[in-house]
Amino acid sequence: YCLVLVNGLSYYEEASDPLIVKTSKGLVRGITLTAATGKQVDTFLGIPYAKPPVREYRFRHPKPIDRWEGVFNATKLPNSCVQTLDEFFGDFRGSTMWNANTKLDEDCLKLNIWVPKPRPKDAAVLLWIYGGGFATGTSTLEIYDGKILAQAILQSGGPTCPWAMIDREEAKQRSLQLAKAVDCPHDSQNLDATMDCLRRKDAKELVEKEFVLKRNKSNVVDFIFVPIEDGVFFDESPENSLLRKNFKKTKIMTGCNSEEGFFFSVYHLSSLLNASTEDVYV
């Protein structure tokens, strides 16, 4: 749905405000921001691209949003999705800089758009999803400020990482483990009861229990709920896509760091460290 919204974005020439844009779902008002370099960009923050995944919409495919009346005010950073915050190193800026900096809420299916100023007639659109292993992260972090973004370099993980995707059966088993952890029915023969219970649970409780399951995993880098080959969004595995060359041909720069992933080992070897008193260099 976010692609449809982006492609349907055009300047609303009849409006007196040049920052009012017409989308396929309604009018949107943006704001002009200035980067540290002095360059100005037109910015549209927190545009919804699907209905909030709450109550009966939780754990389902996203539902298209309805058209809205009036002008949507897209001038403030949106909510961050519900997640745990990193408190392992206390107030150490090197870790807290990755913590969500806006309200945690399930109503977080929002899109931020940055447009060069003056706006070019023909320009490529970069669709970017923030990192965090599908467990943490937010588009609102200072280091993700789109007004200073020029190009992208791919590094630190990819779709073929061993933790990046799981099959449907593994996803079901992990979901049943979570259901058990929050005292929901967890019989694989009665998944409707399981889902009904999970949809009534508080989102914070689900995230906290998910984190406990994650910490019980033995791998240094492992995430519990990640994308699956569902036949809807992913119709085949990334490995098969690479083998069949079924992907967009474009110029990229990619690579890895010499100590790729080493940072995460600190969290799994905490028994060997006194993080409150020792200096740890990674």
TrEMBL record:
GO molecular function terms listed in the Swiss-Prot or TrEMBL record: acetylcholinesterase activity
GO terms for cellular component: extracellular space; plasma membrane
All copies of domain Carboxylesterase type B, residue ranges: 19-151
InterPro entries for the chain: AB_hydrolase_fold, AChE-related_enzymes, CarbesteraseB, Cholinesterase
Keyword Ligase: no
Family the UniProt entry places it in: Belongs to the type-B carboxylesterase/lipase family.
Any one of the GO BP annotations: choline metabolic process
One Pfam family from the record: COesterase
Annotated protein name in UniProt: Acetylcholinesterase-like protein
Species in which this protein is naturally found: Dinothrombium tinctorium
PANTHER family, per database record: ACETYLCHOLINESTERASE, ACETYLCHOLINESTERASE 1
Annotated keywords: Disulfide bond, Glycoprotein, Hydrolase, Serine esterase
Coiled coil: none
Reactions that this protein is recorded to catalyse: acetylcholine + H2O = choline + acetate + H(+)
UniProt function note: Rapidly hydrolyzes choline released into the synapse.
